[in-house]
Amino acid sequence: MGRVSDRVCIVTGAGRGIGRAIGEALLAEGAKVCFADINGAAVSALAEAANSQGKAGRATSVQVDVTNRQQVRAMIAHTVETFGRLDVKFNNAGVNKPMNFMDVTEDNWHFIMNVNAMGCMIGMQEAARQMIAQGTGGKIVNTASIASRQGFDKVAPYCASKFAVVALIQSGARELAKHDITVTGFAPGVVATEMWEQVDQDLMDIGAAERPGQAMEEFSYEILKGRVAQPGDITGTTTFLASKDSDYMTGQIVMIDGGMTLV
pTM of the full predicted structure? Predict the structure, then answer.
């Protein structure tokens, strides 16, 4: 028996990187998982692969824009129709587009805030509605960041969006406790994912880095563990937050950054 056996989970932003790793780790520990992403082909392939590799009937997928409430509702309805209920919702989908602070535009601000903050809010609300209707409680887990604990240059809107995620965790925890719904989050540091590869390129495009890999090196030189994280370094904590072992936690953020940010 795994730590999350038969728990029904949704993971957004699950087409790649941390989200994919979260979903696959949950499956490995016995959960039933809806992989959700704006890239429907990516999550469909992941679910098909899981169902054909010894996890038959325990994975499904949905294409979703987390900023679209109707699509989020449809994602939850599909999950409930497929697996019977919703126990855990990971609001993991996120974007970044670095710009020099003085060059940040309204479009850049709204793009990042809409996905990372509003998308998180919508996901929390709709998951909570389903859990309240079930009357069985549940868990909501949001992806924050080291950028939720201090501001970094070149990524001001991203930092603001992740500070907002922390506020949503605390506010949601207070509001939903009476329904036996916990709200927690985790804050990764520098993780070797496709998103970081794109950030690396974006920073070169705005003249903030001169060569590939420079940005990751500069961001990670203070990591006490001496290396950047791999997605698998994150999933021990995320599975814990989805399991009964974290039932007495709510309103809290767990830092998973190798000792980069000590708060």
Answer: 0.95
